[in-house]
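Project outcomes to date are best conveyed with an example. Our students and postdoctoral researchers have been running inverse folding experiments weekly, and each run begins with a structure described purely in tokens. The record below, which covers 325 residues, was selected by the lab manager from last quarter's runs and is presented without edits.
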């Protein structure tokens, strides 16, 4: 960690994010894990999903985190680099293994099983932060998954946010509430404090109901307006909401032609939204881009494999017809 009072900002990407990325094993053809002789080797993590989505849309993005110096960690590192993501601050360590998750979809319900305790990512701490790298970005994006992994991870997230705010870097925060990692009672004060420290708050409506302990939309809006952040509320019945101190703007969803795998939709939305922001779109139009990216991702199996390019997004936004041959 850089400790000098004056930090010379690095030549960083526009958007920087960090967190846990795990290897992912999935059976094919809708079989259960215990009955599958073959498994697909993939990977996923909220922050790296987002980074891939941003890069495919033409955004400049960096991801850093700790991976095991093992075959799974090397696979993840190489694929992220191959997607055009700056991984110059990522670390392959021999101190701990890469985390693993396994996922199955049975009768339309997704179940995820995690093997992440004492992983390399869970041992991330303040000493793994590069202040100059954060200072050189326009946006730092963090999620509520990282502080749930360990006390040192929580400290790293708050310190990264402090660094960003110190250098005028906007903080984007997706709570990504994971009740398999911690209870709502443990999560609530941490996530609400991060929301208070953020410039862009990206919660889901169901998350807000748990965090604010109410089903009342008007009460939720009142709580959001107490924040200094612009709040982008995902998960409405048919729309996403932009909540400011004075206005609420509803932005309709794009209809997905088919829903194959819903995992990664929220990360895709955030990627599309943040790219829209960095391109200079207003918040409502950036949300429209995010809605479209989310709808495209759910039509492909995997956490990020269906992330579109900017050309594909632009074709839908402007109704450009595909010429097959």
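After processing, the design step wrote out the following sequence:
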């Amino acid at each position: 960690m850089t400790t000098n009072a004056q930090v010379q900002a690095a030549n960083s990407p526009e958007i920087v994010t960090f967190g846990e990325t795990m290897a992912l094993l999935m059976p094919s053809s809708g079989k259960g894990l215990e009955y599958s002789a073959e498994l697909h080797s993939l990977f996923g993590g909220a922050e790296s999903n987002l980074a891939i989505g941003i890069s495919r849309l033409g955004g400049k993005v960096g991801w850093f985190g700790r991976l095991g110096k093992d075959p799974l960690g090397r696979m993840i590192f190489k694929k992220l680099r191959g997607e055009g993501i700056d991984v110059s601050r990522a670390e392959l360590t021999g101190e701990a293994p890469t985390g693993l998750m396994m996922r199955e979809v049975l009768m339309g319900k997704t179940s995820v099983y995690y093997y992440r305790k004492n992983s390399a990512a869970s041992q991330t701490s303040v000493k793994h932060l590069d202040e100059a790298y954060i200072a050189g970005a326009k946006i730092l994006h963090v999620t509520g998954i990282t502080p749930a992994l360990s006390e040192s991870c929580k400290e790293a997230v708050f310190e990264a946010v402090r660094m960003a705010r110190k250098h005028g870097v906007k903080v984007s925060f997706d709570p990504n509430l994971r009740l398999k990692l911690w209870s709502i009672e443990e999560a609530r004060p941490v996530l609400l404090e991060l929301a208070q420290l953020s410039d862009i708050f990206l919660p889901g409506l169901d998350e807000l109901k748990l965090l604010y302990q109410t089903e009342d939309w008007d009460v939720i809006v009142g709580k959001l307006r107490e924040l200094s952040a612009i709040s982008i509320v995902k998960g409405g019945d048919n729309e996403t909401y932009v909540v400011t101190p004075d206005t609420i703007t509803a932005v309709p969803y794009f209809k997905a032609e088919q829903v194959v795998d819903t995992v990664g939709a929220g990360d895709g939305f955030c990627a599309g939204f943040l790219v829209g922001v960095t391109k200079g779109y207003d918040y409502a139009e950036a949300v429209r881009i995010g809605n479209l990216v989310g709808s495209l991702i759910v039509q492909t199996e995997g956490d990020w494999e269906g992330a579109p390019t900017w050309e594909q997004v632009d074709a839908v936004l402007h109704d450009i017809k595909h010429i097959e041959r």
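The chain has eleven helices and 14 strands. Residues 1-5 have pLDDT under 50 and may be disordered. The training component of this project remains on track.
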